[in-house]
Amino acid sequence: MDAALAHQLIEHLGEKNAPKLLLLNYPRIAERIAQLWGHEALVAFLNDLLFDSRGDRAGFPPDVAHELFVIQQIHDQVMGIGSDAAIWGYEEDVGTSAIHIRDFDLSAFLEAAKQGDDLVLQEQIKGGVRIDEPDADGLTALWWAVYYGHLSTVERLLQNGANAKVADPQGRQLPHLFAGTDHCAGLQLLLRFRVRLDVCDHDEVTPLMVAAAKGRISAAVLLLENGLAPAAQDHNGKTALHYAAQAGQRRMVELLLSHGVDPHAPDHCGQTAYEIAMLHPDSGKFQHLFV
């Protein structure tokens, strides 16, 4: 990585929050973050990294994920993107604000959730651990277990009363994570524990929209079968069909059209899903769907 950009990134974050592991193991990502600092494009870039919008990776190692969350929190404050601790269902501890992040020292409990180590997890629960105690990023053991796809760990935590409404700083909840990875067994597990699937993040994005953007057909079918509104709109007026069309997800477009989503319904900028599909480089594969 360019030394000047590395120095610039550390200056933005402060020495205490220097992303040493990111700089060492993911220099291109660190360089891109430094280049985009202070711009809206970085908000989208970090969201994509942490939420895996491409759907082609299992996630970053826990230590690196923490560094990325710290970067996101600090940059959100720079950009004036606020967060209300009450949204997450806990009171923020002193020393865990975006600037004053405490040193990275996850408990054995949180680490066990990330690794899917149910034996250690159960020992910690028996020892009286606070099951919804968040880490410095406001994320609990349950959120991390879902993020890394450890289904047995998720079930154990839910059985022990973990708060299933936990969300990340963007308001993304457990159904968003499972929908984004096409983890139908995970979604079904949430249903078993009576967890609502029709939730939204702070931008009114639903799990169905996440599935639509990534072409997660199985998850989308399950969500639709369980009552998620196919024509729901996010804060920009976009429906799941807009997301599917923009991402070039032909099968998803076909599925949503079969559920009655209007391809000519405009978003708040006046653009329809049909128009978006026709602007796609592979627009030919969509043409017959709208006839």
TrEMBL record:
Transmembrane segments: none annotated. The keyword Secreted does not apply. ANK repeats lie at residues 137-169, 203-235, 236-268. The keyword DNA repair does not apply. Keywords: ANK repeat, Repeat. This is Ankyrin repeat domain-containing protein. It comes from Deefgea chitinilytica. The lineage of its organism: Bacteria, Pseudomonadati, Pseudomonadota, Betaproteobacteria, Neisseriales.
